[in-house]
Amino acid sequence: MPHRRSTPMRAAVAGAIVAALAASPALAAPLDPPSGGNTWGAELAVIDADDVNVTWTGSGLRLADTARPAAAQRRAAAQGTLLVAPHSLAAPASRVRADVVASAGRDGAVEVSARGWRSGAWTEWRSLSGAAVFDQPVTRVQIRVTLTAERPSATPTLREVRLVTDSVAAVTAATPGLTYRVYATREGLVGGTTANGHVIVSRDHFVALPSARGLAPKNTGDYTVRVCTTTRSRCEYAPVWDIGPWNTKDDYWNPSSVRESWKDLPQGRPEAQAAYQSGYNGGRDQFGRVVGSPAGIDLADGTFWDGLLLTDNAWVDVAYLWTGSGTRGRIGSGPLNIRSGPATSNPVVGLAATYANVPIECSVTGQSVSGPYRTTSQWNRLASGHFVSHAYISSVSGAIPAC
User: Fold this and answer.
1) 64 DSSP assignment
2) Given a cut of 50, is residue 244 above it in pLDDT?
3) Which residues are CB-contacts of 165 (< 8 A; sequence separation ≥ 6)?
4) Domain 11-166 annotated CATH 3.90.1720
5) Is the distance from CB of 37 to CB of 90 less than 8 angstroms?
6) Looking at the DSSP assignment, which residues form a beta bridge with residue 176?
7) CATH class belonging to 179-323
8) Where would I find the beta strands (DSSP E) of 230-374?
9) Is 269 a residue whose pLDDT tops 80?
10) DSSP states of 368-393 as a string?
11) Where in 20-124 does DSSP place strands (E)?
12) pTM (two decimals)
């Protein structure tokens, strides 16, 4: 049976909700633009395919439908997200702050987050309640808005977001290539909708993590994990397209200095695991439910059955690839076979999902392959030591050296 869980985003526990909510359309004290930085206003009126359940009314951004979603979608509150187009900065910056004009009401919530582009990849999402600080200067900033209605009568509304960037002393970066052993469960739920708006299909390939900080927009691999069996006999690279299991504010892979919740737990230990194994938080998750498994990651059916060849829930080794560095290649057509060597005669040792961003160490010359992007004898060696044909790589960030 799939591990089913609800992921409500209640206003009372929604975490980093913008604190400076205002009922008046007048902005609070204006932000002072720093020397060398820039300011801009987020474009809230443009709704397109990567946005979920939001609408622009002419006076503000609201939920298109405040009814609670179907039970199969696992969320007990109505929720919508707006992904604003990335904004190119006039000068690199490491901090972004925001003035937010919004009204949430008793049963609603408005959350504004930001991420930055640096070294060929996106940072994690950071709340703009206060300021978002990145570990190194970024050249682009993207804003994400989340509206939540606990009751159909709630009308959370966002009217304006104005932003300013500057640079501050770098904060301690997360250890590159963080990898932890966590318990994996099968998500299933074919026909349901993930937190980023993807409709789940049979034998799908993605994962869910219990924090929106690593949630990739629909049809992207901006946040990709490598999931391997504990024997490393099988691995899959898959994008993070859903939130769960159990919690929604548990970025357990991060150090306590930046971890959103449960800061007293060791880095790499999911709250659900601590609750299940040692009675942490009274054995309950953030919503007060008794935790029934130590799960720290959910796997879509294709990832579970086809990528890892699992037949039951199991412990796995997960690498949170956006915490790493180096060249990344985007899988344009998948699920793509990962092989032990640079030829189709070599054994298949796993899969790479469409849109996954895989870490490429170097390239070798192997069997010539005709793929959707080119015919080539180039094979890329991944950080796992496995190989994929370059014929299926749609784009690359960074240079690929020879092995």
Assistant:
1) S
2) yes
3) 34, 37, 38, 39, 89, 93, 95, 96, 97, 141
4) no
5) yes
6) none
7) mainly beta
8) 235-243, 295-299, 314-320, 328-331, 336-339, 348-352, 357-370
9) yes
10) EEE-SS-EEEEEEEETTS-EEEGGGE
11) 39-41, 54-56, 61-63, 78-83, 87-103, 108-118, 121-122
12) 0.72
